[in-house]
Amino acid sequence: MPRKLSTGARWLVAAALIPLGVSAALMPAQGSTSAPPTEATASATPQRVVFIVLDQLRPEFIDAFDMQHVKALMAGGTSFPNAYLGHMASETVVSHNVMTSGMLPKHMGWADEWFRDTDGVLGAPNAMYVSGSMSQPQFDTLVDDKGYPKLADYLHAKYPDRIVASFGQKNYAMYAMSTGADIRVTFGGRSFDCDGDTTADNTWRGPVGINVPTYITQPVVAPTCPADSHFYVDADSIVNYGTLSTSPAWNYPLQGNRDISGPDVNHPGGDIWTTDAALAVMDNEDWSGLLLTMGGIDKAGHMWGGLNDVAPYPPGGEDPTSHMANAARVADEQVGRIVDKLEADGLLDETLVVLTTDHAQLTGEDFYGIDGVNRGNLNWYYGADADESYLSPSPEIQRLITGLGGTGFTPATDGNMRASMQDSAIRTWLDVTTTKAKKQAADVMSTLGGVRATYYRSGGSYVLRWQAPRSSFSAAEWAWHRAHSQEIVNTEAAGYGPDVIGLLADNTSYGAKGDHGGAQESVQRIPIVFYGAGIKAGAKPTGAIRSVDILPTILGDLRIAKTHWMDGKAYRLP
C-alpha cells in the first residue's frame, strides 16, 4: 500500500539501491544523490528500521531519571555526544518531518507552529493555519507539493512487499513523520463511552488513522467499545491527577490518559498505548519500518518544568502519575519492550534501531507568560485562522502588538500583527512585510522581556537587527549564540515562516514551565543513537550530527541511494 506519488514528484525511488560492492571509503559531498555505504559487512546490513522518538528527551533526563533501557541502547550502539537539533522552530510538528525527510524547515513546506500558505497549497493564498491542527491529508499535501520522498518511500522501494507503520498518541506528531506509511495509528476524539455508564457524555478516545488494522480497532459500534480493548482510554478532563488545580501544571493540564499512561492496566493510554499498537503490528505484518513517537515525557516536561520536577511534589499535585520520574520510567520501559520484541522475533540482528527526540527543553525560571488554568495555548499562540483563535495575549505580547500599531487584540485592531508564536523564542508574522516594517517589528521585539537578539527575514536567510550587550550573556550562552544562532534561525527562512524572530535568554519561557521552540543550547542538544545490525557497541563519534542528518545516515546504513537532494548529510556509522 505505498503512497501514490504526485505527478510533480520527479524522483524514482524504485531505482535507488546501491550495489553491495560499492567501496565503504566513498563519502559523497553534501547534497549529492549517492548515499554512503557503511563499514558493516553485507550480512550485517539492516533490512528493517525501528525509529523511536521520545518527545522532549533532554539528554540530561537519561541520567537524572535513570533511564536504564535508553542507557543500554547507547552503550550497545553508536551515540553522538555532540548531536544537536540544528533547526527552528524546535517544535514537535516541525522536527518529526525534518528527521524523516532530510529537509530543513525552509525547504519542507512548513516551518513553525503557524503556517502562512503563501502559495495557496492548501487553500486561499496567504491564509494562516495552526500547523499542529492540520489534518494528515494537509501534511501529505505540503510534502507532495515540495516533491521529496520520506523514509517510508525509500523503504517501500527496497522492500515493496513489506509495510511501513507509524504510531503516536499525539496526532500531529504522528502525521508529521508518517507521510508514505501504510498504517498510521493515533488517537481520535472523545467519541466513545467505554465505562458502561451509558451517558451521553462520551469521553473515551479510540484508535483512528489510515488503514488502522481491525486487530487494533476491534469490532466497535460507536459509542460503545469492547471492555477488554486496551486501545480505548479514558480521556475525561476530570481525570487530571491534580494538574488542573496545581501551578505550574495547570497551564497545560492532563485531560485523561491520552498523553501520559494512567494506572488502569486494561486501558493505559500514553506511551504504553503507542508501543502496544506497534507490537500488534509486529505480530501480524511483515514490516520494513516502524515509526513510533511517544509524548509522555513531553507532557510532563511542559507541565512541571523538567529537571526541577522531583519529589516532594507541590500540594495538590502529589500524584506521581503526571510527573517526570514516572513519565521517563514508562517511556524507558517501552524502549525495552520494543528491543525485547525484536530479539524474541529473531529480528534484532537485521534491524537498525534509531532513538532520538524532536527537541530538548529548558525550565522557565524567567517566565513571561500568564500562569493560570489552561493558559498554555493562549501564552504560546496569538492570532486566528479559519477555525481557531488565540486572542488573549500575555502582557509582553500585548506590548509587541501595541508597538506594531495595535489598539486591541482582534485581527481588526492588532495593527501590523498577523500571528505570533512564543515559547523559548518569539516568532511573528506580519500583515505588511516590507523591509521597513520588519525592521520596525524587530526593534519593538528587542524591548520585550528576556530577548537577547532579533532578526528579520530577507529572502532565504535572517538578518541580525539587534543583539544585547555581551555582558547580558553567560560565557556558555555567548559561545553557543555566536556559534549557532544565525545558522539555526536561517533554517526557517521561507515565505511561510516568520517575518521576525526574537531569541531569548537561557531558561526563559513565554509559554509553559518547561518549554522549547528556540535556539538555546538546552533546547537544541539532543540524543541521537543508532543500535542493532552492524552497529559498533559503545562508539561515540565526535561529529555534530543534526536531526536533518538522520535520514541520510539511515539510508547510508541500509545502502539505499538518495533520489532527491537533501539538506542533511550522511554520517558513517562505526
Distinctive features:
574 residues, Alkaline Phosphatase, subunit A, 2 domains, 8-stranded mixed beta sheet, 7-stranded antiparallel beta sheet, 23 strands, Type I phosphodiesterase/nucleotide pyrophosphatase, Alkaline_phosphatase_core_sf, GAG_Ulvan_Degrading_Sulfatases, Phosphodiest/P_Trfase
Assign the CATH topology of the largest domain. Alkaline Phosphatase, subunit A
Q: What CATH architecture of the largest domain do you see?
A: 3-Layer(aba) Sandwich
Domain count: 2
The side-by-side strand order for the widest beta sheet comes to 2-23-11-1-10-5-6-8
**Separation of termini?**
34 Å
CATH superfamily of the largest domain: Alkaline Phosphatase, subunit A
InterPro entries: Alkaline_phosphatase_core_sf, GAG_Ulvan_Degrading_Sulfatases, Phosphodiest/P_Trfase
Pfam family, one: Phosphodiest
Protein name: Type I phosphodiesterase/nucleotide pyrophosphatase
What does this structure look like?
Helices cover 28% and strands 18% of the residues. Helix 3 (92-101) runs parallel beside helix 7 (171-177), helix 9 (270-284) packs parallel to helix 11 (324-344) and helix 10 runs antiparallel to helix 11 (324-344). The protein is globular. The protein has 17 helices and 23 strands. It starts with 47 loop residues before the first strand and ends in a 16-residue tail after the last helix. A hairpin with a 2-residue loop joins strand 16 and strand 17 (425-430). The longest helix has 21 residues, at 324-344. It has 574 residues and is an alpha+beta fold. It has two domains: 13-103 and 148-362 and 525-558, Alkaline Phosphatase, subunit A, CATH 3.40.720.10; 365-512, no CATH class. Strands 2-23-11-1-10-5-6-8 form an eight-stranded mixed beta sheet, with helices on both faces. The chain has a seven-stranded antiparallel beta sheet with strand order 15-14-16-17-20-18-19, with helices on both faces. The model is unreliable at 1-43 (pLDDT under 50).
